[in-house]
Amino acid sequence: MQARIGVADTGKVIEIDIDDPDTFRTTVEKAMASGEAMMWFTDSRKRTIGVPTHRLAYVEVDSEESARTVGFTP
Hints:
alpha+beta; single chain
């Protein structure tokens, strides 16, 4: 499953692979609520990226229902 994190005032979107969307959401929410200065992510290209929590524009988590398919269906 993938998540996309947008960085405020830039076109930067960080794509990461996640195992458990609920745990990921909880982690982000706790970091934002506690005022942590920085969140660290490892993107799908295995780069480690730090983003100041006050610069997180959005966090988008794919659901299994929204999985992309290829081809045509009737």
